[in-house]
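hi! just following up on the protien thing from before. the input was this:
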Amino acid sequence: MKIGKYCAILGNALGTHKLDQLVNSRPLATLPFDGKYRLIDFQLSNLVNAGITNICGVFSQKNVPSVLDHIRTGREWGLNSLLNHFFVGFYSNDDIGETVTDSTYYPQLLTFLRRSHSVYTVFSTADVLCNINLEQLIHVHEVKQRNMSVVYKKMPKEQMSSVNSVLNLDETDTVSCVKDYDASHYAEDDLIAMSTGIYIINTDFLISLMEVEQYEESPRKLRYLLLDKLVDVAALGYEYAGYMKNIHDVKSYYDANMDMLDPQKFTSLLHATQKVYTKVKNEEATYFANSSEIFNSQFASGSVIEGRVENSIISRRCQLEKEACISDSIIFPNVKIGTGARVQYAIVDKEVEIAPGVQVIGTKEKPIIIEKQGRVTEDRTL
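and the predicted 3d structure came back as:
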């Protein structure tokens, strides 16, 4: 694709996620995934794989340090050269439950778009996990000559959330109706056309929309503005048929990680035709002692494993002592689990220490969360 013809805006998320302590100190965008990645890696990789390297990420002010710490110069995504850039914009109000934004939001984005001199703009957010070929979407958008196109995915009812939007499309794949998801309207085996929040918009048209919205009494964040305009502008619906996970609560986040222990789903997301890039860590390989027992699990680098691990994902620099047992769990970086401890159906945040002999046990439907930098000295069960 022609360099400079395309740019992108990355938003954070819908803002009504039920992810408890996992997003207290970080945005959804930098939430760890599969032991080695962050959720933002997938949207960034989708963009750079399509040759889009002029990107603006806009986040709540309190979340900017976490984003900058992960992306830094953008080297891993090829965004640190003279012609390739990753800009970070921020706004002061919180993401949680907020559809409106403050007076700084649109001026930043408008400045970015005008300076980009782009013809098309891609907008996406971090709450949908996929490895999508955006070049195909852009090609269809150009051929159909629409002002806006939106990606949708036919999702099972069990993966939908009340914050999602459902699209109706006519015989020409034009969006004819947008409505909030209501579980009572669908059967258990229905496949529902969910908006993924991934758009391509003609840049001049997008600028005109934003110039009007910024002067509204309660200007909406870009995601909600675009969703509201889909029918009015006769937006094109583009169906995505690959692996996708809708991250909207603790259970959906847990399930997405557990999916990576299924070889078919792992390959569909991480070893499709496109690579997924992340920040590189140059560390020694994980050490497995003679006492270790490993069953259907994944490990990042730098850990020492002396106990038993089953159906779990272990991130970097973790320590599992003898006779400790982890099963059906997600372990974030720098976690220490003492001798004889048992962890099951849990999400253990970074820098947690679990004392010897302690039991941390959730359920498959409700995994227990151990908050970042916690010290667990007594049993915790649900």
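The chain has two domains: 6-270, 287-381.
DSSP finds eight helices and 30 strands in the chain.
cheers
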